[in-house]
């Protein structure tokens, strides 16, 4: 089985790597220092099992597990963390295993065997104990590869047919999510200006009425002048007063 070890502490990664070697029967294909690197490496390397810390910068292990569940095939995830407060949520959601540091060789061997047995059928469910968690990244597919887009780099989201176009600092990508679900999840960060468009609250430069009487949103970091619907205009103006 190919493993990926994910922890923001190099010494912790080295210890886990040594333990995997002692257990035997597995290959450590790569390492990552945060959740975002974990998702990118897991897909690139095609790993079977991810040994995943929870408390990490950039993207924590809980969110990383949600993105990992979207890979095909999805790797089995074993949490390895110094904190036990997430254990109940993980077990309730049928996570493969949850190891508390310092990890013992016997427990690691048991977790790896469990992951091996269930690898082919595992579909990692929501590990948040039923409570929605606001993501730090969105997942986009680009010619079969996964691209993670930091939410704080998104300028606006625009619905086009069955996709949503994510306009961000590095360009644009298509995602297969509804604008409504994104508004529900990120309602404090984005403001609806039209039935097909959400704009990041900190991107507004001004509202400008054109000669045709149409109000458009002018953004700070984008040349687009986005149409504001009459229905959304009153709420938008009220929200902007409090920014």
Task: Give an overview in words.
This protein has 243 residues and is α/β, with parallel strands linked by helices. It has 7 helices and 15 strands. Helix 4 links the parallel strand 4 and strand 5. Helix 1 packs across helix 5 and helix 2 runs parallel beside helix 3. The longest helix has 14 residues. About 4% of the residues have low confidence.
Overall 3D form: elongated
| Order of strands in the sheet with most strands | 2-1-3-4-5
Order of helices and strands: EHEHEHEHEHEEEEEHEEEEEH
| Beginning-to-end CA distance, first to last residue | 51 Å
Q: What's the helical proportion of residues? A: 25-40%
Strand content: 25-35%
Mean pLDDT: 88
How many strands in all? 15
State the secondary-structure class. Answer: alpha/beta
Count of helix runs: 7
């Amino acid at each position: 089985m190919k493993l990926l070890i994910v922890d923001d502490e190099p010494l912790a990664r080295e210890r886990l790597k040594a333990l995997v070697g002692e257990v035997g029967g597995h290959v450590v294909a790569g390492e990552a220092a945060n959740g975002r690197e974990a998702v990118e490496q897991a897909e690139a390397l095609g790993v079977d099992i991810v040994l995943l810390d929870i408390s990490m910068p950039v993207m924590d292990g809980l969110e990383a597990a949600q993105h990992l569940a979207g890979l095909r095939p999805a790797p089995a995830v074993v949490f390895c963390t110094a904190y036990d407060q997430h254990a109940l949520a993980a077990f309730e959601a049928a996570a493969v295993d949850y190891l508390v540091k310092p990890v013992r060789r016997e427990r690691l061997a048991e977790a790896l065997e469990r992951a091996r047995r269930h690898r082919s059928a595992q579909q990692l469910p929501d590990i948040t104990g039923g409570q929605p968690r606001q993501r730090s990244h969105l997942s986009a597919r680009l010619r079969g590869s996964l691209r993670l887009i930091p939410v704080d780099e998104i300028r606006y989201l625009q619905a086009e047919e069955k996709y949503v176009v994510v306009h961000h600092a590095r360009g644009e990508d298509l995602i297969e999510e509804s604008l409504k679900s994104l508004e529900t999840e990120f309602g404090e960060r984005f403001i609806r200006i039209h039935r097909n468009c959400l704009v990041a609250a900190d991107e507004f430069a001004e509202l400008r009425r054109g000669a045709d009487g149409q109000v458009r949103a002018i953004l700070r970091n984008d040349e687009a002048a986005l149409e504001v619907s009459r229905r959304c205009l009153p709420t938008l103006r009220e929200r902007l007063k409090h920014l």
